[in-house]
Amino acid sequence: MTGSGSQDARAAAAGTAPSPGGARAWARYFRRVVPYVPGEQPAGDRLIKLNTNENPYPPAPGVAEALRQMDAGALRRYPDPTAGALTNALAARYGLRPEQVFVGVGSDDVLGTAFLTFFNSDRPILFPDVTYSFYPVWAGLYKIPYETRPLDADFRIRPEDYGGANGGVVFPNPNAPTGCLMGLSEVEDILRRNPDVVVIVDEAYIDFGGVSALPLLARYENLLVVQTFSKSRSMAGIRIGCAFGAPELIKAMLDVKYSYNSYTMNLPSILLGVEAVKDEAYFQETVGKIVSTRERAKERLSQLGFAFTDSYANFLFIRHRTVPAAELYEVLRAHRIYVRYFSGPRVSDYLRVTVGTDAQMEELYRFLETYLNGR
Ligand SMILES: *Cc1c(COP(=O)(O)O)cnc(C)c1O
Description:
Aspartate Aminotransferase, domain 2; binds pyridoxal-5'-phosphate; disordered N terminus; 375 residues; single chain; four-stranded antiparallel beta sheet; globular; alpha/beta; Aspartate Aminotransferase, domain 1; seven-stranded mixed beta sheet
């Protein structure tokens, strides 16, 4: 690299002032962050998209109907800052009081708000070494010290690793990108070891066969359960996430939210979210279809020479016994089948494959079979 431009870039990256007389003194006051990298959203429709854990089925029919009926004139006004219709619907669905429910712009917004609200200690927060890669990003953004705890050889979280002095605990259940599920007693084990800090259970994938930690709310006032409409409710595009916890926790999150942006939930999100929660039968039906496609995928992929974790999510975490994951990722991509590949330690042997429709999965098996046989 040559030239003053790259010199300035280096100076900025190092947090130092640019060359004397340079005009970029302000750059040293920028908040420097290493951002999260979301999965690719390729354009076009002749492709099979199994890379971001979206639901292959449309949202509940009532969502489309409410969208058609929507009154554009109502957008003139600010939305309800409490998103009351949606928090009430969620409280009723999960047998909780509205004061136990927080909603936000996707669970990323909810988790970010929870990090900012609860993880304000000098002690490090704890999360697994292999997990949702947004956790270290929020920790960096909010300057929260953190330590990771290694998963065991089978990619499982060991509850005994989450004790001792810490500033809080966060983990997904099922974990991402492994799909491994912890039982309720293991989740409770972590809570029992951490009576003095907030424990966040990120249940983005819990509806695909796991047991939610929601019943533990009755006994643990330091538990926050976070869920999303992006996966099991087929609404990644609308951006709705929610958190359930003791009124004291929810109040603290609302105080932070109202100190930043009162109107996070726009009117269409509130109305369409309510429609999704109303249709329990459709929710059960689509979740059931994905679970049965996933279980069939385990058989088919095993016949094709793949090993994998026992995923309870809407994705599989797979490794071929002889062919490197990076190679498979590239050939699948060239064939317009998109899956997710993570290059980090321990995970670079694996591909994360979202469970699609049966037809999409058949095309995946067909392609893999042909490629593996011809290699
Ligand atoms: C997908 C995902 C989220 C965030 O999803 P939103 O679309 O922001 O609701 C949070 N945690 C995990 C583990 C996820 O996989």
